[in-house]
Amino acid sequence: MTNRRNFLKGISAVVLTANQARQAMAHDALPGSVPGAEKKGVMLMNRIGPSASKLYIANSNGTDERELLAESLFDYHASYCADGEWIVFTSERNGAGQADIYRARLDGTAVERLTDSEAVDDQAALSPNGTLLAFVSTRETYKANIWLLDLNTRQLRNLTGQSGIQGDPNKPGGFFRPSWSPDGQWLAFSSDRNTEWRARKGAWEHIQELSVYVIGADGTGLRRVSNSQPGICAGAPKWSADGKRVVFYELPVEQTWHAHRPELVASATSQIVSVDVSTGDRIEHTSGPGLKLLPQFVAAQEIGYLAKGGPNEGLAYTGGRAAVKGKMRSPVWSPDGMKVIYEKVDFAPRSQNMLLAHPAISRNTLAYWSAI
């Protein structure tokens, strides 16, 4: 683990040097700039991930599927707005590796870019009144924090950047998947704050222990709502329509690596759990084998989720709705539960010598540290 941490520190040094060099070139190599910054360098990268990602919309039973956006190459992680008429989503349409937040109407029109940082901006959720955008960003700190953007004033605030929320700086400290309560007063999210650096047994790859927290939109009242039992990764929280419960997945930490690997994903087992945020009352809504992720209340007593890998891969429900088999990712249901948006990806070979908009940090960096 020491060698791994030193390796990551080395990457950070490269990131800083690359940024300093680019800034120096932009200012015509002013005094004090990085030596040699007047020349363009080459960074060789191998991006392990999809070559394309498109958003689709369909009825919750899988019928009437269509592409959501007329022009799309790498769009993902959509989220419905409270009125059901708009979505926010992540896109790299401004350059490979340049992840920004956009919004659009359900008919694919009025596409608007909401963030423009060189950092990774991802996993956005719009507040119920439509004025505050919560999203995950690596801006300023090169770590995943939850930021709030006031769409009226364009003011930004690092919600999880306070020292009392950050936790031990020598331990993991990422914040992921923000979700607004129906009254707009609280956010739920997952985080590996104050956990230990861990490698899976017999190997070097990092595995991640997440817990689900809630916090006031003003940055106060942080508390954990998921089970404090060690060895569990709990993530992707969503609120019930009445604001009383938060639903999320629970996965053994040792299996977080399995959840990423095509040859292992079918062997991973998780469950869908909800907790009453006031009383702590806990309900386990699923049982049995299979990787179950990204749950959402689609009705008062029904939850939709993604079954990832295995023979039943696709959309699944805890109520009476039939499952929808297929290779889709990151489903999100409309407020009335009747529509669903998801991604479909392609793994075709990429063109060589592509110019990356921001090679220092890409979507995969964030995705690796955010479990599923």
End-to-end C-alpha gap: 22 Å
Which fold name fills CATH's third level, the topology of the largest domain? Neuraminidase
The CATH homologous superfamily of the largest domain is named TolB, C-terminal domain
Order of helical and strand elements: HEEEEEEEEEEHEEEEEEEEEEEEEEEEH
CATH architecture of the largest domain: 6 Propeller
Shape: globular
* Helix coverage percent: under 10%
Q: Please, what is the average pLDDT?
A: 86
Describe this structure in words.
This protein has helices spanning 2-26, 163-166, 363-369; strands at 52-59, 66-67, 75-80, 86-91, 100-105, 112-113, 121-126, 132-137, 145-150, 156-158, 175-180, 186-191, 198-199, 206-207, 211-216, 223-224, 232-239, 245-252, 271-276, 282-284, 291-299, 302-308, 314-317, 324-325, 329-333, 339-346. It is mainly β and 372 residues long. It folds into two domains: 1-41; 42-369, 6 Propeller (Neuraminidase), CATH 2.120.10.30.
Briefly summarize what is shown:
This protein is mainly beta and 372 residues long. 10% of the residues lie in helices and 36% in strands.
Task: Show the helix and strand layout.
Elements: H1 2-26, E1 52-59, E2 66-67, E3 75-80, E4 86-91, E5 100-105, E6 112-113, E7 121-126, E8 132-137, E9 145-150, E10 156-158, H2 163-166, E11 175-180, E12 186-191, E13 198-199, E14 206-207, E15 211-216, E16 223-224, E17 232-239, E18 245-252, E19 271-276, E20 282-284, E21 291-299, E22 302-308, E23 314-317, E24 324-325, E25 329-333, E26 339-346, H3 363-369
Antiparallel strand pairs: 1-2, 1-26, 3-4, 4-5, 5-6, 7-8, 8-9, 9-10, 11-12, 12-15, 13-14, 15-16, 17-18, 18-19, 19-20, 21-22, 22-23, 23-24, 25-26
